[in-house]
Amino acid sequence: MKQRIAIVTGAGSGIGQGIAYALVEAGYRVYATDISEARLASTKAAASSADDLLTRVLDVSDWAAVERVVADVVEHEGALDVMVNSAGVFDGYADVLETTPELWQRVIDVNLSGTFYGCRAAAQVMVKQGHGRIITIGSVAGQRGAADGLSYVASKAGIEGMHRRLAVDVAAHGVTANVVAPGVIKTNLRATSEELLGDLVADQNRGIGVSPDIWNFLIPTRRPGEVHEIASVVVFLASPQASYVNGQVIQVDGGWNAV
Ligand SMILES: NC(=O)c1ccc[n+]([C@@H]2O[C@H](COP(=O)([O-])OP(=O)(O)OC[C@H]3O[C@@H](n4cnc5c(N)ncnc54)[C@H](O)[C@@H]3O)[C@@H](O)[C@H]2O)c1
């Protein structure tokens, strides 16, 4: 059987990296992409099968670059079976008065427009080839106002609406589009966002994710999640067993959204 091909954005760290590794373990050939060349090099170095994990530097907020990477993968591999959009930045829990137009624009550019670019480039290929899976990492913030800052909440809510429409557009072509919405997951999101957003964010160490007291109150499971607990759901959505799951937002949050 032909090896299945996946692209993962934001695969230099955290959830995207865990998804890239889990897809390699599941037998895929994975193109791990990230804005940071250094983080991608670490992802590559720790891969269980270096031959099955290739890397490409990619800023998802650049439409032309996203289109170029997808075209390059399809030219080399002849198909694109799975597109995972995981790249994202955190807005430091900034409220409406703290959210400058510049912070708003950058968070929307990366989290929402970057996801749209990945979805569109993948859909162009998948609709034509007659199969494919598009899976995007949303957040509990897509449904809860107090989960994160204003621009982040808006970007993640936008991702959910966009995937409902996307699922409608691609379903008849054998393609599914779903969102996996994590709660609090142990990653470097605050540190990488501080590096990438700089002065646009005043303080990256505020909000629900930093306080065990708040987790214990909000998350019935009473602990943050692990990257592999998100990656396993993505691997399921990419599999043939998930062929009739479409247009869904799957909460993987220890029960937070049920509270
Ligand atoms: N960690 C959590 O608690 C949590 C909860 C809900 C949702 N999420 C979402 O999960 C996704 C992954 O975040 P994470 O927690 O693994 O954080 P992370 O910082 O560990 O990984 C994010 C990666 O995305 C990359 N990235 C950022 N901007 C980019 C751009 N413009 N183009 C390409 N790559 C870019 C970063 O370089 C980094 O390697 C994000 O969409 C985030 O919003 C995280």
TrEMBL record:
Signal sequence, renumbered to the chain: none
One of the Pfam families matching this protein, by short name: adh_short_C2
Keywords, alphabetical: Oxidoreductase
Superkingdom of source: Bacteria
Family statement: Belongs to the short-chain dehydrogenases/reductases (SDR) family.
Protein name according to UniProt: SDR family oxidoreductase
Organism, scientific name: Planosporangium thailandense
